[in-house]
Amino acid sequence: xxxxxSSWITILSIMCWAAILGVLLMVLKYKPExxxxxxxxxxxxxxxxxxxxxxxxxxxxxxGSIVWGIAYWVFFPAIFPSKWDGIATVExxxxxxxxxxxxxxxxxxxxNNKVFTDNFEQxxxxxxxxxxxxxxxxxxxxxxxxxxxxxxxxxxxQTQIDEKVADLAPYVEKLSENPNALKVGSRLFLQNxxxxxxxxxxxATGYPNLTDNDWLYGGAPENIxxxxxxxxxxGMAAWRDQLGEDGIRxxxxxxxxxxxxxxxxxxxxxxxxxxxxxxxEPTNCVLCHGExxxxxxxxxxPNLTDNxxxxxxxxxxxxxxxxxxxxxxxxEWQTKLGNERIMLLAAYVYSxxxxxAQPAKAATATxxxxxxxxxxxx
Length: 378
Ligand code: HEC
Ligand code: HEC
Description:
Layout: H1 3-29, E1 39-44, E2 47-50, H2 56-75, E3 89-92, E4 95-98, H3 101-125, H4 133-149, H5 157-167, H6 169-175, H7 179-192, H8 194-197, H9 221-230, E5 232-233, H10 240-258, H11 269-280, H12 286-289, H13 315-324, E6 329-330, H14 334-352, H15 371-377
Antiparallel strand pairs: 1-2, 3-4, 5-6
Main location: membrane
Pfam family, one: FixP_N
Domain Cytochrome c: 180-259, 270-353
Protein backbone atom coordinates (compact mmCIF):
# COMPACT_ATOMS: atom_id res chain seq x y z
CA UNK A 1 0.00 0.00 0.00
CA UNK A 2 1.27 3.48 -0.70
CA UNK A 3 2.00 5.87 2.13
CA UNK A 4 -1.05 7.93 1.16
CA UNK A 5 -3.54 5.08 1.36
CA SER A 6 -2.07 3.60 4.52
CA SER A 7 -2.25 7.06 6.13
CA TRP A 8 -5.80 7.48 4.88
CA ILE A 9 -6.93 4.26 6.50
CA THR A 10 -4.95 4.95 9.67
CA ILE A 11 -6.46 8.42 10.07
CA LEU A 12 -10.00 7.18 9.41
CA SER A 13 -9.53 4.41 11.98
CA ILE A 14 -8.14 6.80 14.61
CA MET A 15 -11.03 9.20 14.02
CA CYS A 16 -13.49 6.37 14.41
CA TRP A 17 -11.85 5.25 17.68
CA ALA A 18 -11.81 8.82 18.96
CA ALA A 19 -15.54 9.16 18.25
CA ILE A 20 -16.32 5.92 20.09
CA LEU A 21 -14.18 7.03 23.04
CA GLY A 22 -15.96 10.42 23.06
CA VAL A 23 -19.38 8.77 23.15
CA LEU A 24 -18.18 6.50 25.95
CA LEU A 25 -16.88 9.39 28.08
CA MET A 26 -20.05 11.34 27.48
CA VAL A 27 -22.18 8.44 28.65
CA LEU A 28 -19.99 7.91 31.72
CA LYS A 29 -20.24 11.58 32.71
CA TYR A 30 -23.97 11.75 32.22
CA LYS A 31 -25.76 11.40 35.58
CA PRO A 32 -29.56 11.47 35.22
CA GLU A 33 -31.65 12.89 38.00
CA UNK A 34 -33.48 10.06 39.68
CA UNK A 35 -36.99 9.95 40.97
CA UNK A 36 -37.74 8.74 44.46
CA UNK A 37 -38.45 5.20 43.27
CA UNK A 38 -34.95 5.07 41.74
CA UNK A 39 -36.15 5.33 38.09
CA UNK A 40 -35.20 8.08 35.67
CA UNK A 41 -38.84 9.03 35.30
CA UNK A 42 -38.90 7.76 31.70
CA UNK A 43 -41.59 5.28 31.00
CA UNK A 44 -42.39 3.58 27.68
CA UNK A 45 -45.59 1.62 27.33
CA UNK A 46 -45.58 1.16 31.10
CA UNK A 47 -41.94 0.03 31.22
CA UNK A 48 -39.89 2.26 33.57
CA UNK A 49 -36.23 3.11 32.92
CA UNK A 50 -33.74 2.60 35.76
CA UNK A 51 -30.15 3.90 35.84
CA UNK A 52 -28.26 0.61 36.33
CA UNK A 53 -24.59 0.00 35.46
CA UNK A 54 -23.90 -1.94 32.25
CA UNK A 55 -23.67 -5.70 32.69
CA UNK A 56 -20.14 -6.98 33.56
CA UNK A 57 -19.97 -9.40 30.61
CA UNK A 58 -20.74 -6.56 28.27
CA UNK A 59 -18.05 -4.32 29.73
CA UNK A 60 -15.50 -7.13 29.66
CA UNK A 61 -16.15 -7.68 25.97
CA UNK A 62 -16.12 -3.95 25.27
CA UNK A 63 -12.82 -3.17 27.01
CA GLY A 64 -11.42 -6.51 25.94
CA SER A 65 -11.88 -5.58 22.31
CA ILE A 66 -10.11 -2.25 22.90
CA VAL A 67 -7.14 -4.08 24.44
CA TRP A 68 -7.27 -6.57 21.56
CA GLY A 69 -7.21 -3.71 19.07
CA ILE A 70 -4.17 -2.12 20.71
CA ALA A 71 -2.34 -5.45 20.92
CA TYR A 72 -3.10 -5.95 17.23
CA TRP A 73 -1.44 -2.62 16.45
CA VAL A 74 1.65 -3.65 18.30
CA PHE A 75 1.93 -7.13 16.85
CA PHE A 76 1.00 -6.54 13.22
CA PRO A 77 1.69 -3.83 10.69
CA ALA A 78 -1.79 -2.42 11.33
CA ILE A 79 -1.23 1.33 11.49
CA PHE A 80 0.97 3.11 8.99
CA PRO A 81 1.91 -0.28 7.52
CA SER A 82 4.69 1.31 5.56
CA LYS A 83 6.32 2.58 8.78
CA TRP A 84 5.48 0.03 11.48
CA ASP A 85 6.28 -3.66 10.86
CA GLY A 86 4.79 -4.95 14.10
CA ILE A 87 6.62 -7.21 16.53
CA ALA A 88 5.18 -10.49 15.17
CA THR A 89 7.67 -12.52 13.15
CA VAL A 90 7.76 -15.63 10.98
CA GLU A 91 10.60 -17.87 9.77
CA UNK A 92 11.36 -17.64 6.07
CA UNK A 93 14.33 -19.30 4.43
CA UNK A 94 16.08 -19.77 7.79
CA UNK A 95 15.69 -16.11 8.75
CA UNK A 96 13.34 -14.44 11.20
CA UNK A 97 11.44 -11.76 9.32
CA UNK A 98 8.57 -9.42 10.28
CA UNK A 99 5.11 -10.84 9.79
CA UNK A 100 3.37 -9.90 6.55
CA UNK A 101 0.80 -11.86 4.61
CA UNK A 102 3.46 -12.53 1.99
CA UNK A 103 6.01 -13.77 4.51
CA UNK A 104 3.40 -15.90 6.17
CA UNK A 105 2.59 -17.49 2.81
CA UNK A 106 6.28 -18.17 2.17
CA UNK A 107 6.66 -19.63 5.59
CA UNK A 108 3.69 -21.94 5.06
CA UNK A 109 4.89 -22.94 1.63
CA UNK A 110 8.22 -23.85 3.21
CA UNK A 111 6.67 -26.03 5.86
CA ASN A 112 4.47 -27.74 3.29
CA ASN A 113 7.50 -28.20 1.13
CA LYS A 114 9.31 -29.78 4.06
CA VAL A 115 6.58 -32.42 4.18
CA PHE A 116 7.14 -33.03 0.47
CA THR A 117 10.93 -33.22 0.71
CA ASP A 118 10.87 -35.53 3.76
CA ASN A 119 8.48 -37.75 1.90
CA PHE A 120 10.70 -37.57 -1.18
CA GLU A 121 13.75 -38.66 0.80
CA GLN A 122 12.06 -41.44 2.74
CA UNK A 123 9.64 -42.85 0.21
CA UNK A 124 11.17 -42.10 -3.14
CA UNK A 125 14.94 -41.71 -2.90
CA UNK A 126 15.38 -44.48 -0.36
CA UNK A 127 13.20 -46.93 -2.31
CA UNK A 128 14.93 -46.13 -5.59
CA UNK A 129 18.30 -46.89 -3.97
CA UNK A 130 19.26 -43.22 -4.42
CA UNK A 131 19.64 -42.06 -0.82
CA UNK A 132 23.13 -40.87 -1.71
CA UNK A 133 21.45 -37.80 -3.22
CA UNK A 134 20.39 -36.56 0.23
CA UNK A 135 23.74 -35.07 1.21
CA UNK A 136 24.21 -33.49 -2.24
CA UNK A 137 20.75 -31.96 -1.98
CA UNK A 138 21.55 -30.56 1.47
CA UNK A 139 24.80 -28.96 0.27
CA UNK A 140 23.05 -27.63 -2.79
CA UNK A 141 20.29 -26.06 -0.67
CA UNK A 142 22.93 -24.37 1.54
CA UNK A 143 24.72 -22.95 -1.48
CA UNK A 144 21.45 -21.67 -2.95
CA UNK A 145 20.56 -20.04 0.37
CA UNK A 146 23.93 -18.25 0.42
CA UNK A 147 23.26 -17.11 -3.13
CA UNK A 148 19.81 -15.75 -2.20
CA UNK A 149 20.94 -13.97 0.92
CA UNK A 150 24.06 -12.37 -0.44
CA UNK A 151 23.95 -9.10 -2.35
CA UNK A 152 27.37 -9.79 -3.64
CA UNK A 153 27.82 -13.56 -3.92
CA UNK A 154 31.27 -15.05 -4.62
CA UNK A 155 31.98 -15.05 -8.35
CA UNK A 156 32.26 -18.81 -8.67
CA UNK A 157 29.27 -19.70 -6.51
CA GLN A 158 26.93 -20.18 -9.50
CA THR A 159 29.48 -22.51 -11.12
CA GLN A 160 29.70 -24.51 -7.90
CA ILE A 161 25.91 -24.70 -7.76
CA ASP A 162 25.79 -25.88 -11.38
CA GLU A 163 28.37 -28.55 -10.57
CA LYS A 164 26.36 -29.75 -7.56
CA VAL A 165 23.25 -29.93 -9.74
CA ALA A 166 25.17 -32.09 -12.22
CA ASP A 167 26.22 -34.34 -9.31
CA LEU A 168 22.58 -35.33 -8.96
CA ALA A 169 22.60 -36.93 -12.44
CA PRO A 170 23.32 -40.54 -11.36
CA TYR A 171 20.42 -40.40 -8.92
CA VAL A 172 18.11 -39.00 -11.59
CA GLU A 173 19.05 -42.00 -13.70
CA LYS A 174 18.04 -44.29 -10.84
CA LEU A 175 14.78 -42.44 -10.34
CA SER A 176 14.03 -42.77 -14.04
CA GLU A 177 13.73 -46.53 -13.49
CA ASN A 178 11.50 -46.25 -10.45
CA PRO A 179 7.74 -46.42 -11.18
CA ASN A 180 6.81 -44.47 -8.07
CA ALA A 181 9.15 -41.58 -8.91
CA LEU A 182 7.88 -41.54 -12.48
CA LYS A 183 4.29 -41.36 -11.31
CA VAL A 184 5.02 -38.21 -9.28
CA GLY A 185 7.19 -36.89 -12.12
CA SER A 186 4.40 -37.31 -14.65
CA ARG A 187 1.95 -35.40 -12.42
CA LEU A 188 4.46 -32.58 -12.02
CA PHE A 189 4.95 -32.57 -15.77
CA LEU A 190 1.23 -32.27 -16.44
CA GLN A 191 0.93 -29.42 -13.96
CA ASN A 192 3.95 -27.40 -15.03
CA UNK A 193 5.24 -28.38 -18.43
CA UNK A 194 2.39 -29.66 -20.57
CA UNK A 195 1.17 -26.14 -21.43
CA UNK A 196 4.23 -25.75 -23.62
CA UNK A 197 5.54 -29.22 -24.32
CA UNK A 198 2.15 -30.93 -24.60
CA UNK A 199 0.72 -33.55 -22.23
CA UNK A 200 2.51 -36.26 -24.20
CA UNK A 201 5.76 -34.20 -24.12
CA UNK A 202 5.94 -34.30 -27.90
CA UNK A 203 6.14 -30.52 -28.15
CA ALA A 204 4.75 -28.15 -30.74
CA THR A 205 6.11 -25.49 -33.07
CA GLY A 206 8.77 -23.64 -31.08
CA TYR A 207 8.53 -26.10 -28.18
CA PRO A 208 10.83 -29.05 -28.50
CA ASN A 209 9.70 -32.65 -28.47
CA LEU A 210 11.18 -34.25 -25.36
CA THR A 211 10.50 -37.84 -26.35
CA ASP A 212 12.92 -38.10 -29.26
CA ASN A 213 16.70 -38.34 -29.32
CA ASP A 214 17.21 -34.90 -30.86
CA TRP A 215 18.33 -32.44 -28.21
CA LEU A 216 19.12 -28.74 -28.32
CA TYR A 217 21.01 -28.80 -25.04
CA GLY A 218 21.73 -32.48 -24.57
CA GLY A 219 19.61 -35.34 -23.34
CA ALA A 220 21.85 -36.78 -20.62
CA PRO A 221 20.43 -36.47 -17.08
CA GLU A 222 22.90 -33.71 -16.20
CA ASN A 223 21.91 -31.68 -19.28
CA ILE A 224 18.22 -32.03 -18.50
CA UNK A 225 18.87 -31.04 -14.88
CA UNK A 226 20.78 -27.93 -15.96
CA UNK A 227 18.04 -27.00 -18.46
CA UNK A 228 15.38 -27.28 -15.75
CA UNK A 229 17.35 -25.50 -13.03
CA UNK A 230 18.51 -22.47 -14.99
CA UNK A 231 16.18 -22.31 -17.95
CA UNK A 232 17.43 -21.74 -21.51
CA UNK A 233 17.12 -19.03 -24.10
CA UNK A 234 17.68 -20.04 -27.70
CA GLY A 235 19.52 -17.13 -29.26
CA MET A 236 19.31 -17.00 -33.01
CA ALA A 237 19.70 -13.44 -34.26
CA ALA A 238 17.85 -11.92 -37.19
CA TRP A 239 19.96 -12.03 -40.37
CA ARG A 240 17.87 -9.69 -42.51
CA ASP A 241 20.13 -6.66 -42.20
CA GLN A 242 23.38 -8.55 -42.43
CA LEU A 243 22.60 -10.85 -45.37
CA GLY A 244 19.88 -9.03 -47.26
CA GLU A 245 16.95 -10.85 -48.86
CA ASP A 246 19.19 -12.46 -51.52
CA GLY A 247 21.56 -13.76 -48.89
CA ILE A 248 18.65 -15.11 -46.85
CA ARG A 249 17.23 -16.89 -49.88
CA UNK A 250 20.61 -18.37 -50.76
CA UNK A 251 21.42 -19.64 -47.29
CA UNK A 252 17.87 -21.00 -46.86
CA UNK A 253 18.34 -22.95 -50.06
CA UNK A 254 21.59 -24.35 -48.68
CA UNK A 255 19.89 -25.31 -45.40
CA UNK A 256 17.20 -27.11 -47.42
CA UNK A 257 19.88 -28.90 -49.41
CA UNK A 258 21.54 -30.35 -46.32
CA UNK A 259 18.36 -31.07 -44.41
CA UNK A 260 16.30 -34.21 -44.26
CA UNK A 261 13.63 -32.40 -46.28
CA UNK A 262 15.82 -32.22 -49.31
CA UNK A 263 14.38 -35.10 -51.40
CA UNK A 264 11.02 -33.36 -51.73
CA UNK A 265 12.46 -30.08 -53.00
CA UNK A 266 13.42 -28.77 -56.36
CA UNK A 267 16.53 -26.88 -55.35
CA UNK A 268 18.15 -23.90 -57.03
CA UNK A 269 21.73 -25.14 -57.16
CA UNK A 270 23.27 -21.68 -57.75
CA UNK A 271 21.68 -20.46 -54.57
CA UNK A 272 22.75 -23.61 -52.73
CA UNK A 273 26.37 -22.91 -53.67
CA UNK A 274 26.13 -19.24 -52.67
CA UNK A 275 24.39 -20.20 -49.45
CA UNK A 276 27.05 -22.70 -48.57
CA UNK A 277 29.69 -19.95 -48.67
CA UNK A 278 27.63 -17.69 -46.46
CA UNK A 279 26.86 -20.53 -44.05
CA UNK A 280 30.50 -21.38 -43.58
CA GLU A 281 31.87 -17.92 -43.01
CA PRO A 282 33.52 -18.22 -39.62
CA THR A 283 31.29 -15.70 -37.86
CA ASN A 284 28.09 -16.91 -39.49
CA CYS A 285 26.11 -20.09 -39.11
CA VAL A 286 29.01 -22.49 -38.45
CA LEU A 287 29.76 -20.58 -35.27
CA CYS A 288 26.71 -22.04 -33.57
CA HIS A 289 25.38 -24.80 -35.79
CA GLY A 290 28.82 -26.34 -36.23
CA GLU A 291 30.92 -27.21 -39.21
CA UNK A 292 28.78 -30.24 -39.95
CA UNK A 293 25.55 -28.22 -39.32
CA UNK A 294 24.54 -30.88 -36.81
CA UNK A 295 24.05 -28.28 -34.11
CA UNK A 296 25.76 -27.85 -30.76
CA UNK A 297 24.50 -28.48 -27.26
CA UNK A 298 26.66 -25.65 -25.95
CA UNK A 299 24.82 -23.05 -28.05
CA UNK A 300 21.42 -24.76 -28.21
CA UNK A 301 21.59 -24.51 -31.99
CA PRO A 302 19.58 -27.30 -33.59
CA ASN A 303 20.78 -29.93 -35.99
CA LEU A 304 19.92 -28.66 -39.49
CA THR A 305 20.72 -31.91 -41.29
CA ASP A 306 17.83 -33.97 -39.98
CA ASN A 307 14.12 -33.72 -40.52
CA UNK A 308 13.26 -32.61 -36.97
CA UNK A 309 12.31 -28.96 -36.90
CA UNK A 310 11.65 -26.65 -34.05
CA UNK A 311 10.00 -23.99 -36.18
CA UNK A 312 9.47 -25.76 -39.48
CA UNK A 313 11.56 -27.03 -42.37
CA UNK A 314 9.69 -25.75 -45.38
CA UNK A 315 11.36 -23.12 -47.56
CA UNK A 316 9.25 -20.20 -46.36
CA UNK A 317 9.57 -21.01 -42.65
CA UNK A 318 13.34 -21.34 -42.91
CA UNK A 319 13.50 -17.93 -44.64
CA UNK A 320 11.27 -16.54 -41.89
CA UNK A 321 13.57 -17.98 -39.20
CA UNK A 322 16.55 -16.34 -40.86
CA UNK A 323 14.93 -12.98 -41.56
CA UNK A 324 13.60 -12.32 -38.09
CA UNK A 325 15.57 -14.66 -35.83
CA UNK A 326 14.17 -16.91 -33.12
CA UNK A 327 14.44 -16.86 -29.37
CA UNK A 328 12.65 -19.77 -27.70
CA UNK A 329 12.52 -19.35 -23.94
CA UNK A 330 12.51 -22.23 -21.53
CA UNK A 331 11.76 -20.77 -18.08
CA GLU A 332 13.90 -21.60 -15.04
CA TRP A 333 12.27 -23.87 -12.46
CA GLN A 334 14.70 -23.80 -9.57
CA THR A 335 12.97 -21.00 -7.69
CA LYS A 336 9.50 -22.27 -8.53
CA LEU A 337 9.76 -26.00 -7.93
CA GLY A 338 12.96 -26.59 -5.96
CA ASN A 339 15.65 -29.21 -6.34
CA GLU A 340 13.62 -32.29 -5.40
CA ARG A 341 10.75 -31.77 -7.83
CA ILE A 342 13.25 -30.96 -10.56
CA MET A 343 14.95 -34.30 -9.95
CA LEU A 344 11.59 -36.04 -10.41
CA LEU A 345 10.85 -34.07 -13.56
CA ALA A 346 14.29 -34.70 -15.01
CA ALA A 347 13.86 -38.42 -14.28
CA TYR A 348 10.46 -38.38 -15.98
CA VAL A 349 11.75 -36.54 -19.05
CA TYR A 350 14.79 -38.82 -19.23
CA SER A 351 12.53 -41.86 -19.02
CA UNK A 352 10.43 -40.61 -21.94
CA UNK A 353 13.33 -39.78 -24.18
CA UNK A 354 14.62 -42.01 -26.89
CA UNK A 355 18.10 -43.00 -25.76
CA UNK A 356 19.18 -44.78 -28.93
CA ALA A 357 21.93 -43.37 -31.10
CA GLN A 358 22.05 -39.67 -30.34
CA PRO A 359 23.21 -37.82 -33.43
CA ALA A 360 26.87 -36.93 -33.06
CA LYS A 361 27.43 -33.26 -32.30
CA ALA A 362 30.53 -31.15 -32.43
CA ALA A 363 31.72 -30.54 -28.90
CA THR A 364 32.97 -26.99 -29.35
CA ALA A 365 32.44 -24.08 -31.66
CA THR A 366 34.75 -23.73 -34.59
CA UNK A 367 36.01 -20.55 -36.10
CA UNK A 368 38.02 -22.21 -38.80
CA UNK A 369 36.76 -22.16 -42.32
CA UNK A 370 36.52 -25.75 -43.52
CA UNK A 371 38.71 -26.53 -46.54
CA UNK A 372 35.81 -27.49 -48.72
CA UNK A 373 34.44 -23.99 -48.35
CA UNK A 374 37.71 -22.34 -49.33
CA UNK A 375 37.62 -24.45 -52.42
CA UNK A 376 34.17 -23.10 -53.24
CA UNK A 377 35.23 -19.54 -52.59
CA UNK A 378 38.19 -19.82 -54.89
C1 HEC B 1 6.57 -21.35 -21.30
C2 HEC B 1 6.75 -22.54 -22.04
C3 HEC B 1 7.55 -23.66 -21.41
C4 HEC B 1 7.28 -24.31 -20.24
C5 HEC B 1 6.16 -24.07 -19.25
C6 HEC B 1 8.28 -25.36 -20.14
N1 HEC B 1 9.12 -25.31 -21.20
FE1 HEC B 1 10.66 -26.56 -21.54
N2 HEC B 1 11.17 -25.48 -23.16
C7 HEC B 1 10.45 -24.44 -23.69
C8 HEC B 1 11.11 -23.93 -24.87
C9 HEC B 1 10.63 -22.80 -25.76
C10 HEC B 1 12.27 -24.70 -25.02
C11 HEC B 1 13.32 -24.56 -26.12
C12 HEC B 1 14.26 -23.46 -25.75
C13 HEC B 1 15.02 -23.01 -26.96
O1 HEC B 1 14.35 -22.81 -27.99
O2 HEC B 1 16.22 -22.87 -26.87
C14 HEC B 1 12.28 -25.68 -23.94
C15 HEC B 1 13.27 -26.61 -23.74
C16 HEC B 1 13.20 -27.64 -22.82
C17 HEC B 1 14.16 -28.70 -22.68
C18 HEC B 1 15.42 -28.85 -23.52
C19 HEC B 1 15.13 -29.62 -24.76
C20 HEC B 1 16.35 -29.86 -25.59
O3 HEC B 1 16.13 -30.24 -26.76
O4 HEC B 1 17.47 -29.71 -25.11
C21 HEC B 1 13.73 -29.54 -21.69
C22 HEC B 1 14.41 -30.80 -21.19
C23 HEC B 1 12.51 -28.98 -21.19
N3 HEC B 1 12.20 -27.83 -21.89
C24 HEC B 1 11.75 -29.52 -20.19
C25 HEC B 1 10.71 -28.86 -19.58
C26 HEC B 1 10.07 -29.30 -18.36
C27 HEC B 1 10.39 -30.58 -17.63
C28 HEC B 1 9.15 -28.36 -18.04
C29 HEC B 1 8.26 -28.31 -16.81
C30 HEC B 1 8.92 -28.12 -15.57
C31 HEC B 1 9.18 -27.35 -19.07
N4 HEC B 1 10.13 -27.67 -19.98
C32 HEC B 1 8.33 -26.26 -19.10
C33 HEC B 1 9.29 -23.92 -23.20
C34 HEC B 1 8.71 -24.29 -22.00
C1 HEC C 1 24.57 -17.30 -32.21
C2 HEC C 1 24.40 -18.64 -32.63
C3 HEC C 1 23.72 -18.90 -33.95
C4 HEC C 1 24.08 -18.45 -35.20
C5 HEC C 1 25.29 -17.61 -35.53
C6 HEC C 1 23.11 -18.99 -36.11
N1 HEC C 1 22.18 -19.72 -35.45
FE1 HEC C 1 20.59 -20.65 -36.29
N2 HEC C 1 19.93 -21.10 -34.46
C7 HEC C 1 20.59 -20.86 -33.27
C8 HEC C 1 19.77 -21.27 -32.18
C9 HEC C 1 20.13 -21.18 -30.70
C10 HEC C 1 18.57 -21.74 -32.74
C11 HEC C 1 17.34 -22.24 -31.98
C12 HEC C 1 16.52 -21.00 -31.67
C13 HEC C 1 15.51 -21.32 -30.61
O1 HEC C 1 15.68 -22.28 -29.90
O2 HEC C 1 14.53 -20.53 -30.50
C14 HEC C 1 18.71 -21.62 -34.16
C15 HEC C 1 17.72 -21.99 -35.08
C16 HEC C 1 17.93 -22.05 -36.45
C17 HEC C 1 16.98 -22.58 -37.39
C18 HEC C 1 15.63 -23.18 -37.05
C19 HEC C 1 15.73 -24.64 -36.98
C20 HEC C 1 14.44 -25.36 -36.68
O3 HEC C 1 14.53 -26.49 -36.22
O4 HEC C 1 13.36 -24.78 -36.89
C21 HEC C 1 17.55 -22.46 -38.62
C22 HEC C 1 16.95 -22.92 -39.94
C23 HEC C 1 18.83 -21.85 -38.46
N3 HEC C 1 19.02 -21.61 -37.11
C24 HEC C 1 19.72 -21.56 -39.46
C25 HEC C 1 20.80 -20.73 -39.28
C26 HEC C 1 21.58 -20.19 -40.38
C27 HEC C 1 21.35 -20.52 -41.82
C28 HEC C 1 22.51 -19.37 -39.82
C29 HEC C 1 23.51 -18.50 -40.52
C30 HEC C 1 22.95 -17.48 -41.34
C31 HEC C 1 22.35 -19.45 -38.40
N4 HEC C 1 21.30 -20.27 -38.12
C32 HEC C 1 23.15 -18.79 -37.49
C33 HEC C 1 21.83 -20.31 -33.13
C34 HEC C 1 22.52 -19.69 -34.12
